[in-house]
Design a protein that fits this description.
Number of strands: 4
Radius of gyration: 26 Å
Largest sheet: 2 strands, antiparallel
Structural class: mainly alpha
Strand order of the largest sheet: 1-4
Distance between the termini: 56 Å
Helix content: over 70%
CATH architecture: Orthogonal Bundle
Strand content: under 5%
CATH class: Mainly Alpha
Length: about 350
Amino acid sequence: MRTVGQLAWKAVARWEMLLVLLILAAGVWSWTLSSFFLRRANLLDLATPYVFLGLLAFGLTFVVIAGEIDISVVSTMAVSAVCFAQLWDSGVNVWLAAAAALALATGLGLVNGVLIGVLDLPSLAVTLGTLAAYRGLAYVVLGGDAIAGFPTHFTNIGGGYISNELPIALLVMLAFAVALGLLLHATRFGRYLYVLGSNREAARFSGIPVMRTRVTVFALSGFMAGVAAVVYLGFFGSIQADAASGSELIDVVTAVVLGGVDIFGGSGSMLGVLLAFVLVAELRNGMQLANWSGATQDMVIGGLLVGAILAGNAVRAAQARGWRLGMAGRRWKEVHHAEGQEEVSVRATLKTPGGGSTR
């Protein structure tokens, strides 16, 4: 019974369970803002406009667990999208253009990875630079023009429905969540990331290919930005160079940190990030139904991000304190046990013939 209780407590105490409770609470709150929120059509379509943000968050998860950061993901997505549009507008087959966009996004992520993993430059400084550089590249490629009119069989990826109800984009996101979750939690590469994010020197001495792993996570982040670009184009049906230049990065980082990924690396789960993304999308949907302004929505999501960081720090502090208390308790038990053994030994000596009393 004690074992069952311990397992139940561990399940309830997990960060993901807290996110589930927050999702339910946010649903009730959103329903108070608009009665339309709980309609089936809205619930099924709730995350569709934000699926590309979830895909970006999945890629960023690997980077942050490895102890790095990539704030250029949104700009990478924009470059990939405008290059796709230019290729398609030039007469290239839509699927070949999509493949080229994925390759380009992976290459841009690889550039980040080489600068950080090979040259050992700080990831924050590098990706801050490429955030601006890649956005500028998007303007160079497309200028102030807009391209639209993509074929329906392509736009269905981001804006199509099964039986006019189930969004295809949602299925795409869930498929990537499962695939990337298996990669993170069930492969040697995933275990490398946790060790690398916890202690880079220990990872190096353990024989983990640190440089190659760091380069790979940024290439993977770039690839997911390319996938996000394809879904983005499918949903919106058009593209400009200033695409996703607003608060999208805030939502992506919030989904990762709120999902339980330690901002300093070494811990986190794909399920947590998926649940956090659902929470962010739910809040955005409820506030939009209530006609809240974009600035007010950003304040709420930004506050959620700060709260997640504070909660993460509190959890780490509590864990560290618990570890110290646990160590102190074990040492006290060892000393107490040693004292008890010494007392038993003295008594045995006194009872032994010739063991001697000084009287």
